[in-house]
Amino acid sequence: NAKMKPVQVDEIGELYVSGLNLAEGYVNGRDPDRFIDNPLAVNPIFARLYKTGDYATVHKDCVYYQGRTDSQIKIRGHRVDLSEVEANLLGLPGVDKGIVLCYHAGEIDQALLGFITVETDAHYQTGMQVESALGDKLAHYMIPQVIILDAIPLLVNGKIDRQTLLKMYESTNNNDDSQIEIEYDYTGVPVGRMATAKDLFETVGQVIGRSARAKISLASNFYELGGNSLNSIITVTQLCGKGYPISITTFIGAKNLGEVLDKICTDEHALDKFREQQFGAGAIRNKEEVASFDYTMNLTAYPLALEHKRTPFRSSRRASSRKRTWSSG
């Protein structure tokens, strides 16, 4: 268990292995915390333990796998079990094999990812089509960014090679050659607010980048597009930097971008009130000064949780296509 005490029969605990065949560690010293001293060892043969990262139970001298220890993550305050998401993904007609992983859990670029292969007669052509099908089964914050592969890479022991998949995502995420503009739909935007809407939509697109799940429009919900509590702060900061002051509370409380557009401070009375709240009376007197102010240096207006204070901000994310195919070869 969490206190490194053996669990009872049929009680779920974390699985460790030990013995003569246990290696000293990984090549190049990777993940040294997975190899630890055994606090219960009497025989020196079992002096070291390997932390498998699996949950298991023991019943009638048999070990039963009960899932991964890293299978639960937090998304916008909701606890999400990756195994539940994976079960729903694999349950879709036409999906052959797959796995759900979290990239950089808890960091600003956290991404929930679903890697799948599809059957030859499947009607899915893009990951977005699969995500749309999941919308009938899962809450929107549980829907992963789905990536269709030619084949799932495996380790020599037959298990899925999680690290290779994450590196594939990271490589493509940083590949300028794959850069394609996100689509924007300005239907319903009043002519007089078109310039503001373009700044708003493009700012959201730059911050969310590759995670954007659909066209960005007035009806788009920031979180359903792929936003999260961390990059919402960046979005608000960038909007303020462009001369569109809006509080983080107002932004995250908006049902869609149309509501954000309506609530962006544009009249002088609202602007004066916002400036006074953020910088003191008379500190900034006009919109041009608001636009020129370095908001990245004034993030005290949006206090961060302790675990987020160490997270470096990234000013933008690349926009790119959601349709891509990787080969494991």
TrEMBL record:
Keywords associated with the record: Phosphopantetheine, Phosphoprotein
Organism: Anopheles aquasalis (Malaria mosquito)
Organism phylogeny: Eukaryota, Metazoa, Ecdysozoa, Arthropoda, Hexapoda
Annotated transmembrane regions: none
Protein name, entry field: Putative ebony
Organism superkingdom: Eukaryota
Coiled-coil stretches: none
InterPro entries in the cross-refs: ACP-like_sf, AMP-bd_C_sf, ANL_N_sf, PP-bd_ACP
The keyword Glycoprotein is annotated on this UniProt entry: no
Gene3D superfamilies: 3.30.300.30, N-terminal domain of ligase-like
